[in-house]
Amino acid sequence: MMRFGLGWVRFSYRRLHQKSAAVTLGDRRLEISTGKLARFADGCSVVKLGETSVMVTAVSKTKPSVSHFMPLVVDYRQKAAAAGRIPTNYLRRELGTTDTEILTSRLIDRSIRPLFPAGYFYETQVLCNILAADGVNDPDVLAINGASAALALSDIPWNGPIGAVRVGLSGGEFIVNPTRSEMNGSSLNLVVVGAASSHVVMLEAAAENVLQQDFCHAVKLGVKHTQQIIQTIQQMAKEMKVTKRTPAKLFTASADVLEYTRQLASDRIYAVFTDFTHDKISRDEAINKVRLETEEHVREKFPHCEAFDVLEAFSSVSKDIFRNVVLNEYRRCDGRDLTALRNISCEVDVFKPLHGSALFQRGQTQVLCTVTFDSMESSVKADLITTALSGIKDKNFMLHYEFPPYATNEIGKIGGMNRRQLGHGALAEKALRPVIPTDFPFTIRVTSEVLESNGSSSMASVCGGSLALMDSGVPISSAVAGVAIGLISKSSPENSSEITDYRLLTDILGIEDYNGDMDFKMAGTSKGITALQADVKIPGLPLKIVMESIQQATVAKKEILGIMNKTIVKARSSRKENGPVIENIKVPLSRRARFIGPGGYNLRKLQAQTGVTISQVDEETFSLFAPTPSAMNEAQEFMREICKDDQEEQLEFGAVYTATITEIRDIGVMVKLYPNMSAVLLHNSQLDHKRIKHPSALGLEVGQQIQVKYFGRDPTDGRMRLSRKVLQSPAATVVKTLSDRHSISIGASHEHITDS
Length: 756
Hints:
By secondary structure, the chain is an alpha+beta fold. It is built from 17 helices and 31 strands.
């Protein structure tokens, strides 16, 4: 009863406190409201831009989780009803999740996760529900703002709010929260998520070779507009007098255990991190050996200490030492300078039968990329709901990223696609898409398989993918390279969001990503930026650090491109000999029925036997895609046999032939001039000068032979034109048979006939 009573009190309180506010971004009005819908949730907000509305709810348990990490789940779902459609699956329900939903969920997760307080291990769920979509404004950025408002206006501990805007660049002008039509002509698609004090929490961008100075200006513009959203949500929280829970801090080692662990292990951990002869495996083994021995001594001294507290104490000491070596000694665990790249090697044409292949090695990160061509019909077709909500219908370039467990010396599940792999592949695809020619006649699939991983495998996929595309002969406009920048920072004891000292690291290792504060991935050509993704693990970055990261990544990117150019500078002038072939063939209208076959039988048989894909271009032209030249030759021979008709070529215009009736119909009779010919219709109007309603009026029967005059093929639809009635009036003409070619004189007339 008490729980029910408390729930009722909270519900009635929320009902009486409906709030709404609006913020103007450029010439667009963003509306935020709360307190009307889903009032049992800890927090709920509705964000509206134009006629697109997104509702976001946030619920967090009050009992701690058994997980020793932040158990946050973000779920973004595209609702068919919001788009005015009904799902096309057999149940007519929303089933499963699409790639767009997964990628948007990751976008929201990366935006809100850094602002949860350290040690907050309570199950939290953020659900984003599209209420209405107008087809003009994309709902993804609205969902980020909705999550910010739902968390900030709830009692869930969270160091927000944040604000999110999309920035486009069209005709030299920057556009904040552009419409879908404005984005079609934009060379930049940048999502900026900012926190208070003009800090950056998350960046996600796809660009068409945007210059560095333009990109930096777009980031600054985006951050400026996020502050308006943040101030609006802060004002709403102040007016609603929001108070946050004070949860117990969980899974933290006691000061005594922490200090004893530091005394035991500090020197040995420091020795491992300053021994530059270690690689990933040997370093991990050395640290693990120190950990096991340290834990044994700690348990002897503190027998009642929880196992996780012992492990947490060692992890804390190890992380502090690793970060201090970088901050105080300007040294990295592999001996590199802070801005130095790992050793890079490149190889192309690794496997001759493939359309394109490349092996890219950077330190202990190794990626094999392959390129495969297929017909345009193989392009990715978006589902109806995604098309209605995002405007994307299909794409003929895709990059698929695979991360098998052996890449990190582990055992795990093979197959399937987890969210991380999908996100890494989408980022690499964004980086390469701008250099792909728009008029390329094939669908292109790049696969990136990570064979070894010690950090920055997604950016290695960009480099390897670029090399493989050039090896395959795709005339990309420029080579593309990617690099990851890391951050080790020191914050003020009084204010954790104030950074007092920091070091930026070029081309980070896996351990530097794990112990660091940022994973800043940037890709582009020698001229500009094509993709960027910044994941921040602290509550926000000052703009100064973001600008320095872009500059440091630009320098590293040009150095990587110089190394890649030593292997292959530009795309091959021609595709490989065993590559796919496309040919257009013209099929005369007179041959089309025979070419296609009954119900498309001949086309299906051709595709099954040769692997060739056929699509119709216009009335007479068909496009043939063959995976190999030999398959194309086989298909062409198959078609020659299908369309072969020597007897029809012997027919003479104006000659009279003996035809056999094969079928009686209400509108005429079906006749053949020779046995292997397809039956054609001789219409009632061409049977006799008299008007008849049925061929039986003339005593015609199946199997009967009649004489008809041949007037060639109709130029518009290819049908054979025959007439019997023109032979009913006396005039001289020629009667021919295909068997003996004899001729005699009979009556004929040159009057106009209708098509039959």
